[in-house]
Amino acid sequence: MSRSGISSKVFHGGNFLGEAEVYPAKDQGFTFPSNEIRINYLSPPSERCPPLSVLQTISPFSVRCKVLAKSPIDQSLHRLYLSCFQEFKSAIVVIGSEELHLVAMPSKIEKVPCFWCCSVQAGLYASCLGLLNLRCLAIVFDLDETLIVANTMKSFEDRIEALSRRIDGEEDPVRVSGMSAELKRYVEDKDLLKQYIETNTVVDNGRVVNVQNEQVLPVHGSQEGGIVRPVIRLPERNVVLTRINPEVRDTSVFVRLRPAWEDLRSYLTAKGRKSTIIKEYHEKSSKKSLQHVFQDGACHPKMAMVIDDRLQVWDDKDQPRVHVVPAYTPYYAPQAEMASPVPVLCVARNVACNVRGGFFKEFDENLLRKIFEISYEDEIVNLTYAPDVGDYLISEDTNIASNNNKDAPMSEGMSGSEVERRLNRPVHLGDERQIQFQAPSTRPADGEISLPRAPAGNKNLQSEVGPPTVTQSSLFVGVLQEIGRRCGSKVEFRSTVANNKNLHFSVEVLFSTEKIGIGMGRTREEAQIQAAENALRNLASSYLSFIAPTTGSLQKDLDKCLLGNENGFLRDAPNPVKDELSGREAQPSTSGQLSQSNNSDRLSLTLRGIKELCFEGQDIVFRDQAPISDSLSKGEYHLQAELGGQVLGRGVGLSKEEAKLQAAEMALKTLKETVNPQV
């Protein structure tokens, strides 16, 4: 800050409050107009977010100057300072499209009111403060081929004609069959749209369905009231027929909604959560940008997550904030939505929960704590990094290039530009529940100075090693298959429904139709790796319990045998049982007691580690578990470790403590992999 201050008068409205010295930030020749600080209004108060935490989130390192009262006897200025300091408010000076926020600061030295002055886009502070107070983030949904596929009579006719030409030129009967089925779906939906246009009714499975007049929410920022449209909804088909201009039947549109959209929408708007429809602003030749989407100050890009079927259409700085979903293709591949046991939009909801959890964990535990330590005399660079939605998303484009494949699907609905002209983009400001988090990366956010910082946790997985490697998956799967080959048993991997909100995929391992392992993860491959590893451990435990009353070095030998440097295949080990038995004969009789003591210590350390990774109020619970195989269950204890009703680990042993230890260690490993996939 400049050492020499600029004398300025302070006003609130037309009331003179006192005089102050203004100290511009380094390398900034900032002055208030006419050397007068004219406060227009105060920001809304907050119960949990001091103004500096909000400003650092949406306009980082934007301190323009420091303001220090000249005299302690200016009671009006002192009252303003106390009101702002105690109620987490800021005094706002509006200059054009910019708001200058006077933030009341504590001081280690000064005995007079002192402020930091921060700059932010007009209107943005109040919008984002509301979100931060409610612990909400914005979700921006793409429409065409992400949430819906929409067609007019003209687009139906164009697609039917194009598909018919492809069928006529195709000789492969399999391809002809597939395209003919696709054509049939287009024709059926076109016929329904024609009925709607001509009669305002449709016949669905012999039932006549009439239009219902529905009032549409006005677009955010629009002065027009909501219009009323004639709408037919066929929820069993995930179909809506509507009219863009209620007076013009030629503007009728047939809309296919992606399965689970109603569930997602109900979730996002539950408990009075806000739902706003806005226009998306971007030129055809440019990429999509959150800066343009929120140009009216409804939200900051750092606090918004995008759900889209394409990544590259977004501006580079917004791509880390995009959760990419497979394109919705109800005509080309209607069965694709049923391929996964968890609907695509439910996975997107779970991802949004994870992002919210990570964002506000960083905000509460790091940013707020550091903000409360900042005083008037500190330098601006002492401010800490604020969270960004992009820090908690692993962005990947799921689209597969067609590579001149003539079977690649054509666009199934109106073109993007046509959808943009006709329909508006919804943005749901959802208050999701916290589930899990990924620690932030060091990527600088919009408009902020790129400063080195220490992440408040572990590094983002993507910045270091990427997703789990195929090599690791192949290793465990190869070992299991080799075991199955030697035992004459079939090993199968089966996808199941994941009932854990923060882990989207679940895989079971079947050994001769018997389930021996289960795994969950954010990707199918991650779930498969965990399932295979758990299956190996369960097989190892059952094997040990069957052939020997204690483990010890035999476990180490078996681990070497299963996971040695033999390209993932089993190798013939020297007689481990004999080595173990001969070793055990030389052990003193107190070895069992020593083992029990070691197990007890290990269990205590493991439970402590689990406690550190759990959210407040969560406790690990151990329950009896049915044995994997009756033939191996005599004299054994089978336990499973549960957290919030979710099984995180299973254990088997000759003592209950041994089984509990094994289950706890597996649960700890699962939690570590959930919080930090590099562990």
Strands, helices and their partners?
Blueprint lengths: L5 E7 L2 E10 L11 E4 L1 E2 L8 H8 L4 E7 L5 H13 L2 E6 L2 E7 L9 E8 L2 H11 L2 E5 L6 E4 L1 H16 L4 H27 L1 E4 L2 E4 L1 E4 L12 E7 L4 E5 L8 E6 L3 H8 L5 E5 L11 H4 L10 E5 L13 E3 L19 H28 L44 H7 L2 E6 L30 H4 L5 H18 L3 E6 L8 E7 L2 E8 L2 H24 L5 H11 L12 H10 L5 H23 L6 E5 L12 E7 L2 E8 L2 H20 L4
Parallel strand pairs: 1-3, 9-18, 18-19
Antiparallel strand pairs: 1-2, 2-5, 4-6, 5-8, 6-7, 7-8, 9-20, 10-16, 11-12, 13-14, 14-15, 15-16, 17-20, 21-22, 22-23, 24-25, 25-26
Organism: Ananas comosus var. bracteatus
GO molecular function: RNA binding; RNA polymerase II CTD heptapeptide repeat phosphatase activity
Subcellular location: Nucleus
Task: Please describe what this structure looks like.
The protein has 5 domains: 6-134, Beta Barrel (Ku70, Chain: A, Domain 2); 136-146 and 258-392, no CATH class; 148-232, no CATH class; 477-545, Double Stranded RNA Binding Domain (2-Layer Sandwich), CATH 3.30.160; 613-675, Double Stranded RNA Binding Domain. α13 (553-563) runs antiparallel to α14. An 8-stranded mixed sheet has the order 3-1-2-5-8-7-6-4. The radius of gyration is 31 Å and the shape is flat. With 679 residues, it is of the alpha+beta class. A hairpin with a 2-residue loop joins β11 (201-204) and β12. Helix content is 34%, strand content 22%. The model is unreliable at 397-405, 419-471, 549-595 and 628-633 (pLDDT under 50). The protein is built from 16 helices and 26 strands. Its EC number is 3.1.3.16. InterPro entries: dsRBD_dom, Fcp1, HAD-like_sf. Keywords: Hydrolase, Nucleus, RNA-binding. Residues 418-434 have a biased composition (Basic and acidic residues). GO terms for molecular function: RNA binding; RNA polymerase II CTD heptapeptide repeat phosphatase activity.
